[in-house]
Amino acid sequence: MERADIARALRRIAHEIMERNHGAGDIVLVGIHTRGVPLARRLADAIGEIESVEVPLGSLDIGLYRDDLASRPAPVLGHTAMPVGIDGRTIVLVDDVLFTGRTIRAALDALVDFGRPARVQLAVLVDRGHRELPIRADYVGKNLPTSFKERVTVHLEETDREEGVWIEKRAEVAL
Amino acid sequence: MRHLLSMEGVERAVIEGLLDDGDEFLEVLDRPIPKVPTLRGKTVATMFFEPSTRTRLSFEKAAKSLSADTMSFSPGTSSLSKGESLKDTVLTIQAMGVDLMVVRHAATGAPWRVADWVDVPVVNGGDGAHQHPTQALLDALTIRQRFTTLDGVRVGIVGDIRHSRVARSNVWAFAALGAEVTLVAPPTLLPLDATTWPAATTSDLDDVLTELDAVYLLRVQKERGGASVFPSLAEYTARFGMTVERFNRLKPDAVVLHPGPMNRGVEISARVADDPRALVLDQVRNGVAVRMAVLYQLLGGERDE
Q: Among A108, A165, B27, B253, whose CB has the most other CB atoms within 10 angstroms?
């Protein structure tokens, strides 16, 4: 995917979120660190252009909810911020790549510590398959069928100073 | 980092990593449910061979906020009073199944001995007049919150430096982070090796008072012979106490720290202690957060090096 493809996909997802939820009234966009955070901001901007509303934006670091702390170094923590109460709201979690589903599982656990949303939806730029948990996305920028051994790299201007999605063969199988 | 025993020689990047995580844990402590599942199934033993209230409670709160279980140990109620050795005690507790030990002991070096004997990470919760690294971390975080950095911040540490593990830890942490540290004490209460510390020394608080951004008041340790090392408490207050008069001469944005428990009217006047620029309660709150950061990093897997 190139810059223009990413922009088109996000614009479509913004429309789909509006359509599915009959507007932006109850919505809170919550980006998952690292690249879900800028993606959530872009979605908020796109929704703002369509409906002239300001959608509340949150960010979530799921490092503290991982299930593999003992087997890898403690990850550096990103910033978590929930600007509004989430009770009764529609939360749209935003991430760059949906893979095993473990990150989303952790994000759901984190979210319920902040309150009881009416519903939680998931938007991802890329769904690459290989789920290990019963989790699916509500909004998908692009389905990318991949081999488990491949690596999907998403780079965004805000975090990487370049923009695009690549599939690479892994030099060695780390998993 | 396998253990956290001392602040001496710890690199700036390591300290900053702990403070950065501490900032994030402050956010966790502000949540509606101030608890994360990170250390579920882990057990933290707080082994305080010397009395303590705040440090032990702070470590226990930190462990519980990360969903670890805690076991505590205090000397009065233990087999120590039946003559069990330190080594037998810690090996017994390790055999029950613990993942990390916090050790406080009146004897300098005791946590290092424990770290040699056991297979789990050890955190020094204060050993004699030697080191108290998590105190240094929470103090550094408190100052950093006020000034956004410690680079170039002028910190005076005032009081009985010689008998203070807080001073011995803080001076290294502050200096590593770029602060300019001045030790302020009567000549008899400066450590004999103070020339090897990364700090200037003086015996005249009033001489440096107006240049300081942060004044760190050490507690007069009556239990370690505190009162007997000065002619009188009144004289101590007159020369080294943070009186209202001295407080009013500080820079307008200068802050006052104290590790607690405070002797109001001795090293700090009651009115100063209750002023918003006295950060004592911020220090306590930050203590829980930095101890969460320490437990989190020590109980993570090994870093690839």
A: A165
